[in-house]
Amino acid sequence: VRAAAFGRGVIIMDEPTAALGVKESGQVIDLIRSIKDRGIPVILISHDMPHVFEIADRIHVHRLGQRAGVVDPKQRSMSEVVALMTGAERPTDDERAGRV
């Protein structure tokens, strides 16, 4: 959060809502949205797809430790992203190359 105060850098959050209740998770999501609104890049590592879709501009999908693709959450559904994560669906050539 200190980086947000100075207005520079990148914020990296690894599963920031994993051990939180609904109210606290909402507060964290509001904080992330506030940081994004200030133009500060946020990298969110999460398995919580509703939260990811709520705040992400793009989603880097990984499967078995490898990048499965980069998707635009406005172009793909939550179930499609989960299918990419599990290998049930293949990314497009652009998603595989990270061009979204």
From TrEMBL:
Keyword Nucleotide-binding in annotation: yes
Statement: the UniProt record of this protein carries the keyword Plastid: no
Cross-referenced SUPFAM superfamilies: P-loop containing nucleoside triphosphate hydrolases
Domain of life of the source: Bacteria
Keywords: ATP-binding, Nucleotide-binding
Transmembrane segments: none
Protein name: Sugar ABC transporter ATP-binding protein
